[in-house]
Design goal:
Structural class: mainly alpha
Helix content: 55-70%
Radius of gyration: 16 Å
Order of helices and strands: EEEEEHHHHH
Number of helices: 5
Length: 130
């Protein structure tokens, strides 16, 4: 188990011979944006696809980790205030605001832009501050 400031944790392996974990047992992200239910349901759906042979367990685990990383990044940026700086800035509107809304709505599996925005929140806030 790896943790971050006592509010998020990620299990090192999501599956093994005869077992798999989903939801908070696999990834727990700070609940500030209530992403846990979405991550759990999407992870369960992806696991079902992998168990049916439509994708690999490795690909499933990677997709859950990628999605949870986006939410973890947003939670961290909420606490360091860069999230709010970017959200309420008029400099990058409306494009970035739309991507943030998409991210908070959980659109991190189908479209890469919201996750990219999450990864750049700190940099964007620093630019706005200058």
């Amino acid at each position: 188990m790896r943790g971050h400031q006592d509010f998020s944790a990620v299990t090192e392996r999501f599956f093994g011979e005869g077992w798999a974990v989903v939801g908070d047992a696999a990834v727990f992200v700070d609940p500030v944006f209530s992403s846990g239910v979405l991550l759990g349901l999407e992870a369960a759906s992806g696991l079902a696809e992998a168990l049916l042979g439509r994708t690999s367990l490795e690909a499933w685990q990677a997709s859950v980790l990628r999605a949870s990383k986006a939410f973890e990044t947003v939670a961290l940026s909420f606490y360091d205030r860069s999230f709010l700086t970017v959200l309420f800035s008029s400099e990058h509107q409306p494009t970035i605001r739309a991507e943030i809304v998409a991210l908070l709505a959980g659109d991190v599996w189908e479209h890469p832009a919201p996750a990219r925005i999450a990864a750049r929140l700190g940099d964007l806030a620093a630019r706005i501050a200058r």
